[in-house]
Design goal:
CATH superfamily of the largest domain: HAD superfamily/HAD-like
Distance between the termini: 9 Å
Radius of gyration: 18 Å
Number of strands: 14
Number of helices: 10
Number of domains: 2
Low-confidence stretches: 132-136
CATH class of the largest domain: Alpha Beta
Largest sheet: 8 strands, mixed
């Protein structure tokens, strides 16, 4: 295995615990990666706006791949090294179809997540409701109508995220989405993520590798969700969390302890040992 020069880390279910906290042990482990000269990147389904508090805790982290690979950002230079957006016409069509079901549709764009106010006020009714109480999430904006927001826009968006009140509706809406050139991921919390075709965490990570001049074989990835498997397939060292689905763990080279046990510390130790 090549010497690891870049570590790509998921946030939810990986770096943070179920109580949504970032432990001091994980924070120190991340610092140890940085001190060892390993480039550290956050690769997440979240927007940059939802990571504001996270960035305050770890201001030295420079590289971010957000919205499941839609945007790659060098925060120090404030440069987008990668961007591949969901076409506005597809976003509008999916959002209109989603209105037929009791769902909460979030529009990810310009570093923020927009959601219907009436859904937001009752977010506990939806499958992915835990996400909407995440203590690091400063980037959600309630609006009267995400449909109207899309109708008024002239530019493409990062992605759609759809949470369901009735999980039986997920495959119906997924089938509709599959009639368009999109990439779909069902999150571990039964949310449906809709990105432009060819956009996933793996493609965003490859763009970061190109930007840094680091090969995928010199890269490690750590995560817990189905979206993270796209990273695992491309890197020299892949580490899944014990709290991941069986299929995710089976896709990885190693399995770290549960995120509530600060398994990210174990994963980071293995990355440092691979240097």
């Amino acid at each position: 295995m090549a010497k690891i020069k870049l570590a790509a880390l998921d946030v939810d279910g990986t770096l943070i615990r179920r109580d949504l906290s970032l432990s001091k042990a994980v924070e120190q482990a991340l610092q140890s990666l940085h001190d060892a000269g390993v480039e550290v990147a956050i690769v997440t389904g979240r927007t940059m706006g939802e990571l504001l508090h996270f960035r305050k805790l770890l201001p030295w982290i420079r590289y971010f791949v957000v919205s499941n690979g839609s945007i790659g950002l060098d925060a120090e230079r404030n440069v987008r090294f990668y961007e591949k957006l969901l076409p506005l016409d597809i976003a509008r069509a999916v959002e209109r179809e989603a209105r037929k079901y009791p769902v909460m549709t979030e529009v990810y764009t310009e570093g923020m997540s927009y959601v219907n106010r009436d859904c937001w006020e009752h977010s506990e009714l939806y499958t992915a409701e835990f996400l909407h109480h995440f203590s690091l999430a400063d980037g959600r904006v309630p609006v009267e109508s995400v449909g109207a927001l899309l109708d008024e826009r002239t530019e493409d968006i990062e992605k759609l995220y759809i949470s369901f009140r009735e999980i039986e509706d997920l495959p119906k809406l997924r089938a509709f989405c599959e009639t368009f050139p999109v990439d779909l991921v069902v999150s571990i919390h039964d949310g449906l993520e809709v990105n432009q075709k060819g956009v996933e965490k793996g493609s965003g990570l490859l763009a970061l590798c190109d930007y840094l001049g680091i090969s995928p074989e010199e890269t490690a990835a750590v995560g817990d969700g189905m979206a993270d498997v796209a990273m695992f397939r491309r890197v020299g060292l892949s580490i899944a969390m014990e709290n991941a689905l069986d299929s995710v763990r089976e896709s990885a080279d190693l399995v770290a302890p549960d995120n509530d046990l600060d398994g990210a510390v174990w994963a980071i130790e293995r990355i440092l040992n691979a240097r």
